[in-house]
Amino acid sequence: MNAYRVRVNKMCASCSQRQCQNNGTRVCQMMGLVVEADYLCSHWEMSNGLKNAGMGGGVVRLKGTTEIVIS
């Protein structure tokens, strides 16, 4: 869980060390390996976006428009 009580799954997809390529593959910056989304290593660290999830103040917009769906 982060500081705002949002549950975060511990895996490569939520790690700050992952880098997503244009073709959709994930590369671990620490190990230099192509990894799956559910892979977990000892270097896992929560990404900045997930550290702030649940803080409030954000809105959800329709893709490609400025229409607010959830505020």
* Total count of strands: 5
Q: What string gives the helices and strands in order?
A: EEEHEE
Sheet of most strands:
3 strands, antiparallel
Q: Could you say how many structural domains there are in total?
A: 1
Beta-strand level of the residues, as a percent range? 15-25%
- Residue stretches low in confidence (pLDDT < 50, at least 5 long) are none
Form type: flat
Radius of gyration from the CA trace?
15 Å
Averaged pLDDT: 86
Read across the widest sheet, the strand sequence of neighbours is 1-2-3
Number of helices: 1
The chain-level structural class is: mainly beta
User: Level of helix content?
Assistant: under 10%
Distance between the termini: 23 Å
Question: Which features would summarize this protein structure in a list?
Answer:
71 residues, mainly beta, three-stranded antiparallel beta sheet, two-stranded antiparallel ribbon, flat
Describe this structure in words.
By secondary structure, the protein is mainly β. It has one domain. It contains 1 helix and 5 strands. It has one helix at 48-51; strands at residues 18-20, 26-28, 34-35, 60-61, 68-70. A 3-stranded antiparallel β-sheet has the order 1-2-3, with no helix packed on it. A two-stranded antiparallel sheet has the order 4-5. The model has no long low-confidence stretch (mean pLDDT 86).
